[in-house]
Amino acid sequence: MKDATNEAGTASQDGNHAGRLAVEQVYGYMVRNHKELGIITTFLGWVFLRRENGGRLFMTRMFACANLPRLRRIGYSLPTFTISMALYFFSSIAEATPDLYETVGNPPQLAHFPMAGVTTAAAPWIQPPLPREFHHESLPEGYQYPLPYPDVQNWGAFLMEPWGKADQLGPKTWVASLHAGGARKRVVVKLWDSWRMDPANRDKEVEIYKRLESLWGVDVPSLFAFGAFCFSHALVVDYIDVLLLAYVADVGSSLVG
Amino acid sequence: MEEKAVKAFDEIHARGVLHDDVRPANVLVGSDERVWIIDFEYSHTLDGDENSDKLLTAEKMAVRDMLTSIKLDDSRKHTGDLILKDPEAE
Fold this sequence. Notes:
The complex is a heterodimer.
Chain A: H1 18-32, E1 37-41, E2 45-52, E3 56-59, E4 63-64, H2 69-73, H3 83-96, E5 103-104, E6 109-110, E7 133-136, E8 158-160, E9 173-180, E10 183-193, H4 200-211, E11 223-229, E12 232-238, H5 245-256
Antiparallel strand pairs in A: 1-2, 2-3, 2-4, 5-6, 7-11, 8-9, 9-10, 10-12, 11-12
Chain B: H1 2-14, E1 17-18, E2 27-29, E3 35-37, E4 44-45, H2 52-69
Antiparallel strand pairs in B: 1-4, 2-3
């Protein structure tokens, strides 16, 4: 897993190192299914693998899914090809590559890998959900939310319907609304799964919003609240009423024109 | 509109923040034609960073590149990933 000339990091050989476990798991599949070529992909990048008989595995470096400088800084390589091109090429050579059986001993004999038991006894436990809590940020003068904040204890004033297609903005963001009396205020809620992630990402973004407080309502949406919401780390910001599609097309024309 | 977007990023940079995820989805054009910068999950502050000038310059260039790379096809549909409101959903 290390390349002496271009080492992106190291992984301990025991314990729950996510990257090492991913490689071990895919390598296991490749050996069991007699496949010479394999791929690991994440939300951010792609690794292409080739194994040889005798327990040898070769990996490319981690290629970023897009040309984003921040990915380079955390160890990804920015490819000179597109991932679609790589997949097209890789699929072709994979289809033409015969099965490769793993052997052991001398004379070589087919390696035998028994299936794991069907019990879940060894499966890891997920952490319990966080307690429900929510903090409200104070707003700068001039951008004070005109409605009273929803009572922290009164969740009836906060309405979120993530199943509604019109309220889905992205994989982590939804439109929700705050209610006070007969008034209604639209907000955007960003959620991180608290079973898989600690609140560090949310807290980091909150700190950035605080840093940009003087731009709230000017260039940056106002931060309304953050905290634990059901099974998620949550961040609530002001809703921006975005231009209709046809009008943006005109604006876009003026940008490129 | 382009200058508004550049100015918005300038304001963020002036407060020592690098957005670090410059793409069309994170630049909204409001119904009042104001430009909004969103999504600071990958942002970070540049306090004491000796490379801050280089990083800010690179991001300014990325903003310009993004704005000029927004392409529209003949059917007038936006091919970037700007977050847009569906008129049918209103």
